[in-house]
Each structure stands twice: as structure tokens, then as C-alpha cells.
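Ligand: glutamic acid. Inputs:
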Amino acid sequence: MTHLKPARTRMAPSPTGRFHLGSARTALFDYLLAKKTGGQFVLRIEDTDRKRFVPGSEEEIIASLKWLGLEPDEGPGYGGPYGPYRQTERRQIYAEHAQLLVDKGAAFPCFCTPERLSAVRQEQQKRKETPRYDGTCRRLSPQEAARRIADGEKYVIRFKMPYEGVTVARDLLRGEIVTENRYLDDAVLLKSDGLPTYHLAAMVDDHLMDITHVLRGSEWLPTFPLHVNVVRAFGWEEPVWVHLSVFLKPSGKGKMSKREAAQAVTDGYSIFVKDMEGLGYTPEGVLNWIALMGWGVAEDDVMSLDEMIERFDVEKLTPSPAAINFNKLDHFNGTHIRRLPVEELARRIKPFFVEAGYAVDDDTLLRVTPLIRERLVTLDDCIPFGGFFFQETVNPDPQDLVAKGLSAAQSAEVARRALEILSAAESISPETAEPPLRALVEETGYSAGQVFGILRVAITGQRVSPPLFESMEVIGKAKVIERLEKAAALLDQLV
Ligand code: GLU
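Predicted complex:
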């Protein structure tokens, strides 16, 4: 690592909607860099755009980070020496800093009305010029500007972008980005309501909060030259800038859109972190999946959060876009489920059983968990694979009880023979049940698949189940007998 100094990173979401995978990935990389270097991960809520404010989104951001295990060291509700961490609580700071730039001659009050600005823009478009502020108020004398402010005229504060020369901005992953200043605009820093735009607020806060690395989405690349100019106008040291890759649709063709997000929900997935818990995903699986979208490690690297911290290197992030592949999410989720200790997995699947209305006792749950673990892709798969363990009775489809290649009568006979064998056993376990039932296979001349298929459907109510003999042991002799009797009766009705 080249950055051995403790890094201070921040995730700076706007509370304008739901917390999605992109934000989660930024948070993850921020977190990893901070933890790797013994620094801090800061949460800052950028809520100055009141028109786009969505109530509840700050709560969702915090809950999502908590669920993922990416808890900030500082932030709203967490405290810290650099607060407040909500931008609307820092208005005064931005107003003062905007004034500082005006005093330095690097920004100016602008009184142009929206109507005038739009007329100017239309003219420029007609002339095929890049639309930009035409500099009218930039030319006002400080005295004239002060007089108009004193008269109560409405104004914004704009950045005075140099007209000539070039801006060289450096991104850690992308290298130098050189822009001719004549393409850059005199951006608004402070709006007429006194609230800052992102261009001012984020730069001021990153400086005042001692942020060393700014990790953010590549949608900020177009305004990146503006941002470095603002930081330089203050005379501040720049953070290390890291623009992360964009997420593409699962097809890899085009950016992730609202439509794709809706399609994901239809397919049983979601791009919103808070939905993933209910869909049976684990934080470990989600983190591993998103880590690999933009971090240049092997595609199938299985890592826990601690292992990620161990291996993280911010310079190994890659700027190339990553397609969202939900099959990989399933893969990592299943893999991490199998890495969980049995007790922990039992604790996590229990709410799904309860939610589905099963009366779950912890003893049975602990015996069921290792039997179904191999088959779980999502935690809620515990219901199709293990629900029957907690049912008084099962209701197999009679047709499913008929083994392939056998008649209903022959299948009923198999069920009855198994019934005799198991009734004679003192208790049912793989040791007591498997040898005599294998002998039954021999005796009948049918295949193991046919015989055990009948028993599986009879005892579990379904064609796919965890290992049969272990399942019988957990269900217990009395219920196994009952279920076989019922199956034989159902098959008789088919004859
Ligand atoms: N508030 C900005 C956003 O949500 C933050 C970008 C950044 O991380 O600087 O897009």
C-alpha cells in the first residue's frame, strides 16, 4: 500500500431515494480503506437539495449500512469530532466559505434572473456554442454588487472559473484528466435560498472533515475539473480522488435504469439493500458480490469482510464498468451460507420459518439446519427444503407417490413393506433404517431411486428433500409411520 497513513473516507449520500447497490459499494470501499489503514469511515448526509428530499431515506441509509456491517465511525447518530454531519445543519459554514471566495476574488454574486439565463442559453445554443454563464455579473464592481445586495436583490454566488488555460485533475485510477477552461462554467456555489450546491458543500466538508480520499461515482467526472478548481481557489490540499466504475444492466448493454431495477424485482431480486434481507440474502454474500464489481481480484474470490480488509488495496480498484449479474449474487450467497456456523445459520433462518407460520423449536431447528444447509441459495429456501420438518402432517400429491416405471399398486406395496420394516425398528436413524431399506431395494428388484423416491415423497411430502434417512431421524418414528400409512392409503385409491 502506498497510503499507509490512516485514511479518512466518507460516504456522502443525498437522502433523495432508496439506498441501492451503487451506494453500498462506495460505502464498502470507503470502509475497507479506512479499516485497512486504521483510519475512520464517515457518513455525511448531503441534504441541501430540499426539492429532491425523500422522508425516510436517511433512516434507510443508516439501517442498510448497519445490516451490511459497515457501521460508520462518525456520522448522524454516531457523533464524532467533525460534526454536525448533516449538511442542512452546516448552512452558516457554507455561507462563510462562499464569502471567503468572494473576498479572494474567486467567486462573485450574480443577480441574473432565471428568465435572463434561459434567454442567454438559447442564444448560445443557436450559435452552436457550449452553454455557459455569459459573465455579466462577473464584471460588476464590488461596490455595485454590495449596493444591489443591500437593496435586497436576490442573488446567487458563482465560482469565477478561469477563462484561459487548462485544468489538470488527477484521479487515482484514471490518471490525469486535462480540460480546457473555456469549456468550464461559472457554476453556482450558493443558491438564492442561502443553501450551497454540491460543488461548494462537498468541497468545504471534505476539507473541514480532513477527508483524505474521496471515493464517488463516475457521474461526477464532468464536474471534477470544477471541483479541483474550487479546492485550489481556497488554497487547500486536495484529497486523493477516486471515481468508481458505473454499474451496467445485467445484459452489459447500457447503464442500470429504473426499468431494469423494476425487472430485477419481478425476477425475485432487488438493487435495494434493504430489500435483500427479506429476499433471504446475507450481508456476507451481498458484500462479496459487490466487492468484485470494481475491485480487480479474481471473479470467484470468496472473502469475508475481515478478509477483504486484509487484502484491500485502493489502487486495485478498476474504472471499467461492471455488469450486475444476479446469478453471481446467488452463488456468493449460497457459498457464504455454507460458511456460517450451524448455530448462526439456524438463528438466521428461524425468522423465515416463523414468518411463514411454522412453530419452530430450537432443538429441531438445530438438527434440521445441517441437513438443509447445502441446498440453500437464499435463507428463505429453508421453507421449501425444510418446512415439512415442522408440519404435523404432509400432503403429498398422490401422483408423486407413484414411482417412475412402477404402478400405483407396486408403489403402495413398497410403502407397506417399508412400514413393516420401520415399525419393527426401535427408533429411526440412518444406522437403523438404511440397511434394512437397502435390503428392501434388493428384495424388490426395483432401483434405489424408485424405492427411496416413494419413501421421500411419503415422508417429506415433496420430491426434492434433504438426505432421506437423516430427515427420518429428525421427524421421528411416530410421524414417519403415520406418513407412510397415509401414503399407502393414498396410493390404494389410485389402484
Ligand atoms: N451527495 C452526492 C450523491 O449522493 C455524493 C457524491 C460524493 O460522494 O461526493 O451523489
